[in-house]
Amino acid sequence: DVLFCPGNISPIIKTSKIKSQWVATLGPFHKEAYIGFKFGEKLILSLNKFFTYWSSVTSNATIHESQYSMNLFVNKFRLKEKNHKLIICGKNNIFYPDTKTKIENTTLKSMKKTDILCVSHFYPYKNLELLVHAFQEFSVCSDNDTTSLFICGRPAFQGYFEKVKELVNKNRLKAKVHFTGSINHDDLRVAYSKCKLFVFPSLCESSGYTLIEAMSCGAPVLGSNSTAIPYTCGFAAEYFEAHDQNDLAKKMIKLLSNDTLLNEMKEKSKARAKEVLDYEQASKKLDSIFM
Fold first, then answer.
1. What's the predicted TM-score (pTM) here?
2. Element counts in the chain: helices (H) and strands (E)
């Protein structure tokens, strides 16, 4: 009676009473996500986009994690609004304010309460080069020359990872920009809780689970104004123009010199995280859609 497909795509031909798909990845719908991929990989992304769209056309219920995603299908592609449902979720209850647990990651151990954190795997669309450029500008203009930047994530694109490292060395930031690689959830929870500012420069997100993790731990969030990021963080975050390193640097200087504002943002982060459903709550809401 019910066919539920959680991986973006469902069969185009409808053979059940209720056919539903969960759209969690919008990368193939944005040109930024194709940067750095080879022709064959770009072709796979294009096919993913094609099948996600056309299988949604024949679905009774297409589930979206952000209003941005839902607007893309309903407003831009003009699909039937009644067949599209919104479940704002992604909260994992292992993330909460925690500054007491000891960090195991060797590099991350040196993080101070005055430092900046970014959590992102190394894909070109994550916009990490712009973050490094902005941090260089911040370091030159700011009175606080002790602030470091920690980037947590695996080098998914080794070539891009090397490019970002080369940029760090070129700008003589090796002592201030630290790459931790992938880290476990306990270390990540403490890093979110401890950092003075969490920066998320991505150009393309369907929702942004790391944003929800950061807010759950009470981290002040500075995110790009691109795709679903403003929909995910809402009132809780400050935003910068996604392609403007000067705007990012100015916002970093503004926030890191204002502890009162940062404390207000911490409370806003925790308040916004409470509005996001955890996975058990999301499952119950999904059940109600099918019933």
1. 0.95
2. 10, 12
